[in-house]
User: Fold this.
Amino acid sequence: MAAKHFTGGCHCGAVRYEVHVDLDSAIACNCSRCARLGAILAFAPESAFSLISGEAGMTDYQFNKKVIHHLFCTTCGIQSFARGTMPNGTRMVAVNLRCLDGVDPGSLSPKAVDGRNF
Assistant:
């Protein structure tokens, strides 16, 4: 499947964005953060992501190698996306597919990724 256009955001609606992302590239990571969060993620180039609202209302959390900016809404606490850099230097956005409008997480088949031992 090719990348498609979606809108998404946090629970309270303060953070809203548009993204072109391929749902077939979904992953479920078992690192200490993702496992607790229950996120289903897909990656998109930064150029395929547009933050519509909420920039000032997010908090940045980093851990481990501190290369990913886990951004969450300061009002409702939801992390709907994160920003980082791929190993090849490409700026990317990791989108929590559970936060996309109209996407049924049960219809996704995420690939298991061993982030715990990465």
About this structure: Residues 11 and 31 are 23 Å apart (CA to CA). The radius of gyration is 13 Å.
